[in-house]
Backbone:
């Protein structure tokens, strides 16, 4: 963490010049400049005074609250193409395995199927975006068409099969992450 840059950002956010901040803290403008350029380090007492003048405290200043990415674009996606099995998978939320759920976009070419998924804790949800799919759960088979969904607890082996004549796409979400 660069303390100087963070102090500069707070100063600018508070619409203060270096001189105005220095006056409020009873410091010199030169010291504030050196501090912001990481040429010197303040004592704890001085840092507390500066932060107080900037409307914050040590706890907030040193917290690692990185801004959470909320919107993901195509360039953020990770793709896996398996031409031999007629399957394409896009992980549409990077590092989703660290989250409580993991969404993927799966495309199956005609006649293709996903690998058999073993039972696991959690839940699974899917939304058929295009094509005609079969969802096989244990010994039961369900047919899904565009605009239809599935939702189940994966207590038995399961997989998706494309039984149509065109590519099928499904938005598939598991919780906890399983893909």
Residues:
């Amino acid at each position: 963490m660069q303390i100087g840059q963070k102090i500069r950002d707070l100063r600018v956010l508070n619409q203060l010049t270096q001189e105005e901040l220095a006056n409020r803290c009873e410091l010199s403008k030169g010291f504030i400049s050196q501090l912001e350029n990481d040429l010197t380090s303040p004592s704890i007492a001085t840092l507390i005074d500066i932060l107080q003048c900037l409307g914050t405290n040590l706890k907030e200043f040193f917290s690692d609250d990185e801004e959470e990415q909320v919107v993901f674009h195509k360039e953020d996606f990770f793709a896996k193409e398996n031409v031999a099995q007629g399957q394409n998978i896009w992980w549409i939320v990077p590092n989703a395995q660290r989250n409580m759920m993991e969404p993927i976009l799966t495309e199956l070419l005609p006649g293709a199927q996903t690998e058999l998924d073993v039972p696991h804790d959690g839940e699974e949800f899917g939304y058929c975006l295009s094509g005609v799919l079969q969802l096989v759960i244990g010994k039961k088979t369900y047919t899904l068409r565009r605009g239809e969904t599935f939702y189940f607890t994966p207590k038995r082996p399961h997989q998706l099969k494309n039984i149509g004549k065109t590519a099928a796409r499904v938005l598939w979400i598991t919780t906890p992450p399983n893909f």
In short: Residues 74-175 form a domain with the Jelly Rolls fold (CATH 2.60.120.10).
